[in-house]
Amino acid sequence: MAAAPRAFVLRHTRLRPVPGLEQIRLHLADEVLPLWHAVQLETDDPDAALPYWAFAWAGGLAIARHLAAHPEAVAGRRVFDLASGSGLCAIAALRAGASVATASDIDGLAVAAIGLNARANARRVTVVRRDVLDDEPPSADVILAGDCWYDGRLAARVMPWLRRARERGIDVLVGDPGRRYLPTDELVELARYEVRTTTELEDLEQKQARVFAVGPGA
Ligand SMILES: C[S@@+](CC[C@H](N)C(=O)[O-])C[C@H]1O[C@@H](n2cnc3c(N)ncnc32)[C@H](O)[C@@H]1O
Q: Measured between alpha carbons, how far is 176 from 179 in angstroms, rounded to an integer?
């Protein structure tokens, strides 16, 4: 992990327990806009992505809660966390007994945050900084996709990729709080969780988020 992104993450976040999942600690921020501005200055890029990695998103929180309640979904299995952000789902999978966890994200600061968060939870997460959606699905037993349906262009690419993974026998768990682009007709609902987030990100501090499987016929 490069030192500068890691130092940036440490400077702008505080290590603290995840609401509702107190055994997991993440480097999290309180406010999104000042941090986004700091990212724009740090990267010298006015179009820099939002600092997704500094928050635990409702979809990821639902998956993490689900894995705590149903460790058998990942225990002893190889897990791939798509669009990992903070690394929350990968860390939750390892806590539930996954044999290995790989996290992917396109944001270099997310890569730094995932490394720091994995270390803070004494877990080993392999991190891939690449847009894997143009690749074939990975060698994994389970793919976790937390909160990937907030953007139409991303959503349009995620579902076909997850469907291909499912066709190859990979289990797919989706976590989502009802984002606009989620194609619920293609998914099988497994559970609902009340998750605590922040009004920095959502309209309410408490959201209902659902966990779905991508069904065999999706
Ligand atoms: C809303 S956050 C969700 C993070 C995490 N899964 C969670 O639920 O807390 C979405 C993440 O997707 C990442 N992302 C966007 N496009 C991506 C792509 N094509 N491949 C991998 N990650 C991507 C963003 O950088 C961001 O970290």
A: 7
In a mutational test of the pocket of ligand 1, which residue from 53, 88, 105, 196 has the highest number of ligand atoms less than 8 Å from its CB? 105
Q: Residue ranges of the chain with pLDDT lower than 70?
A: 1-3, 216-218
CA-nearest of 138, 120, 33 to 81 is 138
107 close to ligand 1 (CB < 6 Angstrom)? yes
CA nearest to 200, candidates 30, 5, 12, 18: 30
Q: Specify the DSSP class assigned to residue 30.
A: S
Q: What is the pLDDT of residue 162?
A: 97
Taking the C-alpha atoms of residue 101 and residue 130, their distance in angstroms, rounded to an integer, is: 16
Q: Is 106 in the pocket of ligand 1 (CB under 6 A)?
A: yes
CA distance 84 to 32: 18
pTM of the predicted protein model: 0.96
Q: What angle do CA 120, 2, 200 make, to 5 degrees?
A: 60
First and final CA of the chain: distance in angstroms?
A: 37
How many other CB atoms sit within 10 Å of the CB of residue 134? 8
